Description:
This protein is mostly helical and 191 residues long. The protein has ten helices and no strands. Helix 5 (95-107) packs antiparallel against helix 6. It is elongated. The two termini are 28 Å apart.
Amino acid sequence: ARIVFLGRPQPNKFPSTNFFFDPQRFEALKEWHQRFEAAGAAAELTDRLEERWREATGESRADAVMTLAIVDGLAGRFDAARGRLSEAADGYDDDRLRLVLAQLLVQQNEPTDALMRLRQISAPIGQILEDSLNGQLQLAERLDQTDVARQAALRLFGIRLGDTNNELLQSHLRRLGLDQHAAHLRTRSGS
């Protein structure tokens, strides 16, 4: 599962499935969290996950902080989740964490900060880049940052999108005054 900005009115609510947690793994973590809460040991779960994060190395660090942030989110501690994700996204230079952090920032009604995080994503290709550009386009339009929206739209123009997203991108291109690109995209996609 991934965060999708284009084609949906809002991204998934945090916490949710993401690049780290597929639906099965996410549901399993939710169940563990509920069990610890029911036993009055939610703090113990958080302590264990914090220890796991401190001891993690390499790629497992991002996974460990995401696990902890999701548990924070499940417990309603969104500021704690945000702080952990922010620290890790910067410290680990991880685009996946930046994307999830942007999702949380949108949910907390902080579109300017979310846009800043999305613009920090450096993935050269792939789904993370596409999701980041979709988010940048929508947030920049919402914030009346036309130049940023145009940059994101033009970069998306260069990516082969599915039919639904092509139609949405055509609409964005026209709104941004990029009518020739919208017409070319319509011709290229055959719609």
